[in-house]
Write a structure and sequence with these properties.
Elements (H helix, E strand, L loop, with lengths): L9 E2 L4 E4 L2 E7 H12 L7 H22 L5 H11 L14 E6 L3 H10 L8 H14 L8 E6 L8 E6 L31 H9 L12 E2 L2 E7 H19 L3 H25 L2 H6 L7 H12 L6 E7 L3 E7 L2 H10 L8 H16 L10 H8 L6 E6 L8 E6 L2
Antiparallel strand pairs: 1-2, 2-3, 3-8, 4-6, 5-6, 7-8, 9-10, 10-12, 11-12
Helix pairs in contact: 1-4, 1-8, 2-5, 2-7, 3-5, 6-10, 7-8, 7-11, 8-12, 10-12
Length: about 400
């Protein structure tokens, strides 16, 4: 029987998807491309090494753990299948041997994402695949990450007909990080929430059970977007490493500058992924008939968020004027604690932007009426005088029991 990424890895108690100690979360191509572009646009930060290194770290640690536990696995095939089934495209590791080599691929999530979002690029953009490739290569052949390197010599986002990567046994040309720490996952209170008449737990279970796997080309088109089941700590590492390096450059204003970028990425995620979900055929057939009010739409969307592997999302109160969200085991906080320990400021930027995005979509954007998702509509939701405000009330990364977010009208 072949490898199946989905078998037994989603935990309904904590709403986390974990394979070999690596949390994996669903996000769309808009978020992936926007987040990377936002980081790379800051040319005063040399981001390429950590964009590759973050992926190498996650892939190496995950596959090393899998191979240690299951010594009979076909290592090259498993590495290829995780990449394909997670929606990243295709990488055929049989093209490499223990000394490395050249690997070619004609299907790439990041190339598709970049061309859809930005038309094209003047340089190679598939840093995630570069890192996954070199990290997996090291795990397959028992190499140290410090002794392997990777170069992407051709990229479909630039107009090339295929992606080409060269892997070598030479000193690493990407960031190597300190080993991440183990973090205790909190037990979620049993009486987390029970809104009105809505079967929120059923909604979460139903969406979580959807067989969301990459197709033969390693792409995962659903809800009007291309999804990936991305390593949570890839997002965390590239975000927090960017913030760390920026703070070293500009001082105490670093977190303020970086947070604005990452909150905006959360808006992009909500607009495209949540908007896509709430206007999808799947939503109409599985969920919509249960919804009697706009508040129900907020509850139902939050129930769906818990199925994405982001932790347990709840709504404590909601009206057309405001809402209170509480999140248990939010993946940004857990990742920060694993990498850097306790934070002196709230860091769940994606969650903040996404929570506000739900309110903007439902109450300002009338997503119930299936609007056209245009640039003008995005501006109306997130850059107008009517846009919802937001703030942290607590944050798990700072040592609080949970992450609480308040969203409110100006």
């Amino acid at each position: 029987m072949g490898f199946n990424l989905l078998e037994g890895n989603y935990n309904l108690d904590t709403h986390r998807f974990v394979l070999a100690d690596e949390s994996m979360v669903l996000h769309c191509h808009h978020y992936n491309a926007f987040l990377q572009r936002s980081i790379q646009d800051a040319e005063y930060i040399d981001s390429k090494p950590f964009l590759i290194g973050a992926s190498a770290e996650a892939a190496f640690d995950q596959l090393s753990a899998l191979f240690k536990k299951n010594i009979d696995l076909d290592r090259s095939k498993v590495a290829s299948e995780i990449f394909r089934q997670a929606g990243f495209g295709t990488l055929d590791f049989s093209q490499l041997d223990k000394n490395g080599g050249t690997l070619k691929s004609n299907s790439s999530h990041y190339a598709v994402a970049w061309k859809a979002k930005f038309t094209s690029s003047n340089e190679a953009v598939n840093h995630f695949a570069s890192g996954y490739l070199v990290g997996s290569f090291a795990a397959i052949y028992n190499h140290d990450l410090k002794s392997v390197s990777v170069v992407q010599s051709a990229c479909m986002a630039t107009g090339a007909k295929e992606d080409i990567f060269i892997v070598s046994l030479t000193a690493s040309n990407f960031s190597i990080f300190e080993k991440r720490k183990a973090v205790k996952i909190q037990k979620v209170p049993e009486d987390t929430w029970s809104p009105n008449h809505l079967p929120v737990s059923v909604i979460t279970k139903t969406v979580a059970a959807m067989p969301l796997l990459g197709d033969i080309n390693g792409l995962l088109p659903v809800f009007g977007v291309y999804l990936t089941r991305m390593y949570a700590d890839y997002y965390n590492r590239i975000s927090f490493e960017f913030e760390r390096q920026l703070t070293e450059l500009v001082g105490e204003n670093g977190p303020m500058v970086s947070s604005s970028l990452f909150i905006e990425a959360g808006h992009v995620c909500a607009f495209n992924t949540f908007g896509g979900i709430m206007t999808s055929v799947e939503w109409d057939s599985l969920i919509k008939s249960e919804l009697k009010s706009k508040e129900d739409w907020v509850y139902a969307m939050v129930a769906c968020v818990s199925s994405l592997g982001w932790g347990t999302w709840t709504v404590r109160d909601v009206s057309e004027k405001s809402a209170s969200f509480e999140i248990f085991n939010d993946y940004e906080s857990i990742g920060y604690q694993r990498m850097y320990g306790k934070s002196d400021h709230p860091i769940s930027y994606l969650a903040l932007g996404a929570a506000a995005g739900i309110m903007d979509l439902v109450y300002l954007g009338d997503v119930i009426d299936k609007p056209e998702f245009t640039e003008e509509f995005y501006t109306k939701l997130f850059k107008s005088d009517s846009t919802f405000e937001f703030e942290f009330e607590s944050n798990l990364a700072c040592g609080d029991p949970s992450t609480k977010i308040r969203v409110f009208r100006k």
